[in-house]
Amino acid sequence: MKILEFQDVEYGYKTNKVIEAISFTLGKGEIVGLLGPNGAGKSTILSIAATLLKPTKGSVLYYEKRLQEHKEIRRLMGFVPQEIALYGNMTAKENLYFFGELYGLKGEELRIKSEEAGEMVAISLKETQKIKELSGGMKRRINIAVALLNSPEILVMDEPTVGIDLQSKQYILKAMEDLKNKGTSILYASHHTDEILNLCTRILLLNEGKIIADQSIKELKKYGLDTVKTFEEEVMKFFFQQKTTV
Ligand SMILES: Nc1ncnc2c1ncn2[C@@H]1O[C@H](COP(=O)(O)OP(=O)(O)OP(=O)(O)O)[C@@H](O)[C@H]1O
User: Fold this and answer.
1) Burial class (CB in 10 A: 0-12, 13-18, 19+), 173
2) Which contacts qualify for 99-103: CB closer than 8 Å, 24 or more apart?
3) Which residue range or ranges hold the ABC transporter domain (predicted)?
4) pLDDT for the residue 114
5) Ligand 1: which of 13, 159, 205, 208 to mutate, most ligand atoms within 8 Å of CB?
6) Does the predicted TM-score (pTM) go above 0.80?
7) In the structure, what pLDDT confidence band is assigned to residue 65 with cuts at 50, 70 and 90?
8) Where would a tag sit more exposed on the chain, N or C end, judged by fewer CB atoms within 10 A?
9) Bridge partners of 216?
10) Pair 144, 176: CB distance under 8 Å
């Protein structure tokens, strides 16, 4: 079943078209990685997938059109933005309880869901430190835990491992792998080829608002392009060809 499908999607900020002709699907339990240089349009695509931006052209289907209301879609979705969206003066537990209540959780369910979400990214709710006193990696893990509170079926993550320590990065990648094994469908952006090749079932390579390659990892393996070196060499060839044909 297609959980999410972009059909010829375009988006422009005023007159500036930043993505165009974007078509791809995210199946159940798939991790689709968006890889591309700064400004390629990754965050724009993720914001559209998360229903925060409306395409200026084309459509996005959820569950093969079975879900159409933004409210219903958001109930099944977790969104992790690039910026940390937590209250600095509160602890991890207080933040999780606060956002959990916003999701409508209370009592025992709120406690259990908060603990489970914390556990997914190795965060203990017993810590009394405030968010503002924590490292960037800890903040990011707690930010992810917040998105997991409603046990989302679709997770949209914008560069979840950028600029953090190695340990936090490993915890986040492990959580993503565990979520995938549980059947969660994940759409995420990254700059790291190694991470994407290890984790994803499919890669979308973006440049200047367009998809320049959409390949499953299985296909890449078949052509021997599933190592960082061979994949990046092919990508560089593409950019080189572009330059020489202009
Ligand atoms: N609010 C905005 N107003 C105008 N232009 C914008 C706005 N947000 C993004 N853009 C432009 O849209 C294009 C795509 O940006 P986007 O953030 O989607 O790229 P990205 O691939 O996520 O980049 P990065 O890796 O730097 O996060 C860029 O040219 C950017 O300057």
Assistant:
1) middle
2) 99/146, 99/149, 100/149, 103/149, 103/150
3) 4-233
4) 96
5) 13
6) yes
7) confident
8) C
9) 202
10) no
Q: Which of 134, 151, 168 is the last residue of a domain?
A: 151
224 and 126 in a single domain? The answer is no
Distance between terminal CA atoms of the chain? 41
Specify the number of domains making up the chain.
2
Domain that holds residue 19: 2-76+154-245
What separation in Å is there between the alpha carbon of 53 and the centre of ligand 1? 13
pLDDT at residue number 75: 87
Q: What is the mean pLDDT of the chain?
A: 90
Q: What is the DSSP letter of 47?
A: H
The answer to whether 91 and 127 are in contact (CB under 8 A) is yes
Alpha carbons 95 and 145: distance in angstroms, whole number: 10
What is the band of 134 on the pLDDT scale with cuts at 50, 70, 90? very high
Helix (H, G, I), strand (E, B) or coil at 86: coil
Name which residue sits closest to atom 17 of ligand 1, judged by CA: 43
Domain boundary among 151, 174, 189: 151
Clarify whether residues 143 and 158 are in a common domain. no
Task: Quote ipTM for the complex.
Answer: 0.90
In the numeric block, the tokens 């309880």 are attached to 97
In angstroms, what is the span from residue 84 Cα to ligand 1's centroid? 18
Give whole-number Cα distances, 188 to 19, 153, 164, in Å: 16, 14, 17
